[in-house]
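Lab intake sheet, docking and co-folding queue.

SAMPLE TYPE: protein with bound small molecule
LIGAND NAME: NAP
LIGAND FORMAT: SMILES
REQUESTED OUTPUT: full 3D complex as structure tokens
PRIORITY: normal
SUBMITTED BY: R.K., bench team

The fields below were copied directly from the construct record.
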Amino acid sequence: MNTNDKKILVTGAGGQLGSELRCVLGDRAEYVGRDTLDLTDTKTVHDYLRAHDFRYVVNAAAYTAVDRAEEEKSECAAANVTIVENLAALADELDFRIIHISTDYVFDGHTSRPYTEVDKPEPLSVYGTTKRRGETSLLGLAPDSMIIRTGWLYSSFGSNFVKTMLRLAKSGGPLRIVADQVGTPTYAADLAAFIVDKVIDGHWNPGIYNFSNEGVASWYDFAVAVVEEAGMDVEVLPIATVDYPTAATRPAFTILDKTKVRAAYGIDIPHWRKSLRRCMKLITN
Ligand SMILES: NC(=O)c1ccc[n+]([C@@H]2O[C@H](COP(=O)([O-])OP(=O)(O)OC[C@H]3O[C@@H](n4cnc5c(N)ncnc54)[C@H](OP(=O)(O)O)[C@@H]3O)[C@@H](O)[C@H]2O)c1
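RESULT FIELD (auto-filled):
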């Protein structure tokens, strides 16, 4: 192995994106999960970073339980803010670049045109608020970082909407799914491929970028597609957000405008439906 290659750190290694990154990067990276390193402890993180010679840190660690976050505010902030600050504090001194993942939930969804990177974040939930605080801290401490905002992530790894729909469909249905929240389902494998092929092995363009799959869907559309791709004969019924109360308020509209990432990296991003098919082949085979 080229020694230059051994200079990538992936945090949140056991999560959806962390697992997809491992598939692409293999032994080019070091992986840390909650069990291997307490990323919320400043000294622990700094000792670890000083003992290595990383060129890139991909921060895929996050508290992502959107509803539970409304109760577990400090746990959520520890993961979504403190971890980012612990990593960012040494980026300049140790000369590593941070690729940090953020969310479409930094927006309030009170619009009907896709969000660009310069639109004003107005998070509605504890999760969204802490993710926004993480972004702000990162840009303050390590302005040469890259922030990738994505949404509605799923993967063959971990738990997610696709697996939940499959489980519910197997128990017979009908499924009642919210149809008045729209966004874009994003296959974490596509995001991992972008990070590695275009950013780490491509070129460095710091700043905030939107990245999701192409297309638009409601959670209802997404559920219908999962059931169709699985070849199951289960009824899916559209319901309104008000008929499915949750602890956290979610934005009704989080389509991300990807003009910037397409232009900066010259990429064609797959449509969400095509990527869903690829992922579901892995899940159902
Ligand atoms: N999932 C989505 O729909 C979605 C949408 C938009 C943006 N994003 C963002 O995309 C990124 C990747 O998300 P994902 O779906 O891959 O998340 P995920 O599957 O929930 O994985 C997150 C990982 O972070 C770890 N983690 C949580 N708290 C930690 C802590 N205090 N210390 C160390 N590790 C901790 C988790 O470990 P445990 O498993 O042990 O908790 C898990 O391995 C995150 O930044 C997320 O905010 C996700």
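REVIEWER NOTE: Residues 12, 14-18, 33-34, 39-40, 60-64, 78-79, 101, 103, 131, 150-153, 158, 188 surround NAP (CB under 6 Å).
SIGN-OFF: pending second check by T.M.
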